[in-house]
Amino acid sequence: MNSQSFPDESSEKQLIPDFQNNLPTNNKPIPILRLIVPLLIQAGLILAIPAQPVYTYLTGRTVILQTVPVDPYNILTGYYQILNYDISTKSTLEKLPGSKDLLKNGNSFYVILEEVKSTGEGIPKAWKPLRLSKKLPSSLPDNQIALKGIYRYGSVEYGLEKYNIPEDQRNQINDNISRASRSATQSDKQPIVVEIKVDSQGKAVPVSMWVEERNYRF
Amino acid sequence: MIIDSFRAKLRKEAQLWRDEGIIQDSVYEQLSQRYQFDSLEVSARDRFIFILMGVGFILVGLGAITFVAANWQAWSREVKLILLLSLFFATNIIGFYLWREPVLDNSGKKRRVRKRIFGHGLLLLGGLLLGANMAFMAQTFHISGSDYELFLFWGIGVLVMAYSLCLASLGVFAFVLLNIAYWMGNGQLSSSYSDFSLGLLILEHMPILWLAMFVPLAYLCKSRWIFALSTIAFAISLQFNPSTYEVKSFVFALPPALLWSYDDLLFPKVNQRWFQSVARNLALLFFSVLFYILSFRGYWESSSYYSTDINSIPNLFLLDLGILTALAIYQWFHLLRPKGNRHRQGIDITNIGIGFFVVMAAFAPIGNQIMSGMGFFGIFLFNLLLALLACGMIRQGLESNQRRAFWWGMILLTLQIITRMLEYDTDLLFKSLVFVLCGVAVIMAGLWFERHLNSVNSEQ
Q1: Burial of B151 (0-12, 13-18, 19+ CB in 10 A)
Q2: Closest CA of chain A from B107, distance in Å
Q3: A24 three-class SS
Q4: Could you tell me if A121 lies within 8 Å of chain B, comparing CB atoms?
Q5: Percent of chain B's residues with pLDDT above 90
Q6: Per-residue pLDDT reduced to its tens digit, A156-167
Q7: Which pLDDT belongs to residue A23?
Q8: Looking at chain B, which residue has its C-alpha nearest residue A106?
Q9: What backbone phi and psi angles, to 5 degrees, belong to B100?
Q10: pTM for the complete prediction?
């Protein structure tokens, strides 16, 4: 009594994919459309990556953020600078109004920033965080802006944390940054700020970085 | 190469046979036509040209890579982008044109096959270049998205191509990429439910998506590998999905229930049982692993941390489970439905046995919860089930003279005995006794079975 329901041993050999089966059995070549359509989808995937940043860059408002940098290494994207902002730390945000209950893992919220007028020459002044808001504020004064962030494992992410350093300038920039960081121990804030653009949805892209008097474009 | 050397040898032998008068000239002609002795020189020359061209291509490629490396820093972002994109398009298009060459062509068939392989390789390279382009984009525009998202959408892109060209190799490539994405992103899944993201949504529903994305492809490519890989990924990802901590019963019972009752003919436009045996083998494998794990003391003695609070599971995931459960019930209904004149006694016993196993698998987490403190019963029950499974397989192996089922059952049984002996604190003398007994039993049973198999084979 050979039971049909039990897996047949003859299947073992066939587990190896039979490439012969993949070949079209007739002599007609596969229509070109079967390449074009997936290729266009793939191209769409490639181009979709910069779509949001480009939109933000074109429509956004310029804002300056205060930083605290560190520098690790990532296999996938090569060398980059991890930028840690003044407003990324929990201790800074905790002092602000509206921060209650918002600083929990996975929560997203908006930080309202206010412009600090720069005094002409040199390094621009960083914007000052005012308060936190769970929802995107419908209207804000002209000198204020809402920036979206997500609280994750003790710090806040804004999508502005990576800066890929061009290879030829890597040593120079790293030297400048470490020099600037050292000099910061005397004064209260290190003289490294990042210029970003923020769109109406609170999404942001980095534009350039000021290390003391020097400006590096992203 | 191997085929060619066989043909060359055959030609030499056939000439010898003809000269010695073993075969007639007409027979030689027939052989010559069948094995295309004439084209032997042609294909040898072709091979030489192919090697020359291959070396040339590699040199040109190396030169191009060196040129790009030398100028990479000097070029602007736009030049790099255009270069990478055009490389991506060129590789895919050239690969496609070489790959789609017709197969059946009487003259110069060998070269065309080689062209196809070369084109196939280029298409795979195109899949790699898609990832390179995406990573480059993310780097150039300073996007601090998660790495898992890159792999996820890369995998989806490759999968689209695999579907369109019905290429199993691209399907396996996409499978690997999506696995990387899943295991990279799985950790983030539990932490950030509040923020919506497409990537996380896909990851959350990955268990059902493994089936939805790869099983149709397996049919398109007629590839058992893709079917087996996708169902294994489905079963494993269901166990580790953070949303499933509360519904372990479903998680334990659904994969084997679905796999055992799987029937290709239930799906439209399928008229052959391509994958049923693979699915059933995997169901048995799943039971073996699950019962083996559940037969350990550790599982039953650890306090159960499952809460049965249905509300804590995302609603959409419950929908997934609902769909899978409905599918399983539908399949079982078809499996157990009486089908007229076939003699079905044996089938029904196997099916009912498997159905019982499914129910017990679903019972395990519940049992763990209600019997905290009296785990002895659970340990005993699942050891019994494991032994039952092993014996059932041995029985099936004997009944239908299948070597694999018999041996798998033997190994499972031996593994169980040895594991239990090592798990519990037993005397050294007793350990040695068990080892010896197990070894002797395996050898005896194996020898007897192989002889039995031989005698059955010679009778036929």
Answers
A1: buried
A2: 14
A3: coil
A4: no
A5: 21
A6: 888 888 777 666
A7: 44
A8: B192
A9: -85, 5
A10: 0.77
The helix (H) or strand (E) run that includes residue B153 is helix B147-165
Q: Is the pLDDT of residue B222 over 50?
A: yes
Distance between CA atoms of residues B157 and A40, nearest Å: 10
For chain B, how are helix, strand and coil distributed in percent, rounded to 5?
Answer: 80, 0, 20
Mutate to test the interface with A, among B93, B116, B125, B142 (most CBs of A within 10 A): B142
CB contact under 8 A, A49 and B351: no
Nearest to B177 by CA among B138, B243, B128: B128
Check pLDDT > 50 for residue B140. Answer: yes
Mention every residue, 6+ apart, whose C-beta is less than 8 A from residue A205. A53, A56, A57, A60, A159, A160, A196, A197, B141, B142
Q: What is the DSSP string of B352-376?
A: HHHHHHHHHHHHHHHHHHHTTT-HH
Give the mean model confidence (pLDDT) for residues A145-165.
Answer: 81
For tokens 């560190």, the residue is A70
Q: Distance from A123 to chain B by nearest Cα, in Å?
A: 22
Burial of B8 per CB tally in 10 Å (0-12, 13-18, 19+):
middle
**Cβ neighbours of residue A141 under 8 Å, at least 6 residues apart?**
none
- Average pLDDT score, chain B: 82
Residues 6+ apart with CB under 8 A from B373: none
Q: Strand A192-198 to strand A162-163: parallel, antiparallel, or no bridges (unpaired)? A: unpaired
Helix (H, G, I), strand (E, B) or coil at A216: strand
Residue of A122, A192, A208, A126 whose CA lies nearest to A160: A208
Distance from the Cα of A186 to chain B's closest Cα (Å) equals 31
Within 8 A of B93 by CB-CB distance, chain A residues are 35, 39
Asked if B153's CB is within 8 angstroms of A45's CB, the reply is yes
Q: What is the rounded distance in angstroms from the CA atom of residue B161 to the CA atom of residue A41?
A: 9
Residue B369 has pLDDT above 80, yes or no: no
Cα(first)–Cα(last) distance of chain B, in Å? 38
Report the C-alpha gap between B159 and B175 in whole angstroms.
8
Q: E strands within B87-152?
A: none
Which pLDDT value is given to residue B421? 82
Sequence-ordered alpha helix ranges (H) in B241-337: 248-260, 276-294, 297-301, 315-336
What residues have CB less than 8 Å from A118, skipping those under 6 apart?
A124, A125
Q: Which ranges of chain A does DSSP label H, i.e. alpha helix? A: 11-14, 19-22, 33-48, 51-59, 90-94, 170-183
pLDDT at A85 over 90: no
Q: In chain B, what residues touch A39 (CB-CB under 8 Å)?
A: 89, 92-93, 161
* C-alpha span between B94 and B84 (Å, rounded): 15
Render pLDDT for B439-453 as a digit per residue (tens, 0 to 9).
888 888 888 888 888
Whole-number Å distance between alpha carbons of B290 and B235: 11
